[in-house]
Amino acid sequence: MGSATAYHLARGGSRVVGFDTFHPPHDRGSSHGLTRIIREAYFEHPAYVPLVQRAYQLWRELERDSGEKLLVTTGGLMLGPPDGALVSGALKSAREHRLAHELLTAAEVQARFPVIRPDPHMVAVYEPRAGIVFPERAIATHLSLAKRFGAELRYDEPVIDWAASREGVRVKTGNTEYTAEKLVISAGAWLPHLVPSLRTSLQVERQVLFWFAPGGAVAGTKIGDPDSARFAPEHCPIFICEHGPGHYFYGFPDLGDGVKVAAHHEGIASTPEQLERTVSEEEITRMRQHLEKYLPGANGELKATAVCMYTNTPDEHFVIDFHPQHSNVLILSPCSGHGFKFSPVIGEVAAQMLNGAKPVQELSLFGFRAAVGCGVPPKSATIPPGNSPV
């Protein structure tokens, strides 16, 4: 969100300086792992659909302006019981917004996509526009274009303090101090440190990503079969599977690095400083059990793992709002583990808000108080500046 905001502000003529503790794109936060799902029939809430539709447009514009390939359409399956949150929510969004989709039985899923083996009682919402966004490439592109439009980007420079008043904002980094008219805090897992009133409302959650080489037991193949063509995008769409009430895992086709899979939520609470980056044998075994049941042909050699962080609000929606005590400080994120696909439109919305324009998009779902509830102090309270890096 920060890289997209820097781009949209600089493109619009604003004078911009951006900070990162590390050198983006990097693997220290929530925006790595080679691929992210983009989907339109949004099961979390129909209010996301206009946002993601605008995001599709902006991803394509970014591709045109940069010459980079940032989005690949694969189609997408939302698999689960007919009355589960995933399928019923995806159908609600698809019908309310008249999105192209199909409702498939388990047998129809397996006939069309033989590598996927849903439970007999499952159904799937298939949406043809779903696909993949490449996060590291997208961040690098946003930042490169932001720089082209005049943004000053300061990497490996942690923010250690900030303060705001009616006259403007002050930001202190490990190197020096800056003043400006307005401030955007898009700090992901570091947000609880930088905005202390959020500490009791936000939870940083550890997430594990896996890449497996195709080669598990599936009809017509043998263990160790190196042929990954069965998991190419034309044969294996992105998918999310609700395998139990409120329990999900998701996956991607093989784009050359193996089949990527991960659980959605279910991670342990952590902090950026304490994040355990070693993946245990127990975690690998648990994921192999999902593969054995639903994606047996992908249950081959483990090629790689990675760890990232979700930063969750109580209602798992985003925060896109001005600080309750400071109308010149905009809070972007946390995104509760499902935000990357929206980054260009959130950057666009942020630039509009900071320039005093009313966004075209409906944002009431993402208000500060709606997202964090009782974690927000009364208006009269004084919120001290953050004291940890972002």
What does this 3D model show about the protein?
The protein is an alpha+beta fold and 390 residues long. It folds into 2 domains: 152 residues, FAD/NAD(P)-binding domain; 160 residues, D-Amino Acid Oxidase, subunit A, domain 2 (D-Amino Acid Oxidase, Chain A, domain 2), CATH 3.30.9. Helices cover 25% and strands 25% of the residues. The strands form 5 sheets. An 8-stranded mixed β-sheet has the order 5-6-4-14-15-16-13-17, sandwiched between helices. A 3-stranded antiparallel β-sheet has the order 2-7-3, with helices on one face. Helix 1 packs across helix 8 and helix 2 packs across helix 8. 46% of the residues are buried.
Helices and strands in order:
Blueprint: H1 2-11, E1 17-19, E2 36-38, H2 48-66, E3 71-73, E4 76-80, H3 85-96, E5 102-105, H4 106-112, E6 123-127, E7 131-133, H5 135-148, E8 152-154, E9 159-165, E10 168-173, E11 177-180, E12 183-185, H6 191-194, E13 203-212, E14 238-244, E15 247-251, E16 259-264, H7 281-294, E17 302-312, E18 320-323, E19 326-332, H8 343-354, H9 368-372
Parallel strand pairs: 1-8, 4-14, 12-19
Antiparallel strand pairs: 2-7, 3-7, 4-6, 5-6, 9-10, 10-11, 13-16, 13-17, 14-15, 15-16, 18-19
The mean pLDDT is: 92
Query: CA-to-CA gap between the ends?
Result: 13 Å
How many DSSP-defined strands? Answer: 19
Largest sheet: 8 strands, mixed
* CATH class category label of the largest domain: Alpha Beta
Helix content class:
10-25%
Number of helices: 9
Spatial ordering of strands, largest sheet: 5-6-4-14-15-16-13-17
Fourth-level CATH superfamily of the largest domain: D-Amino Acid Oxidase, subunit A, domain 2
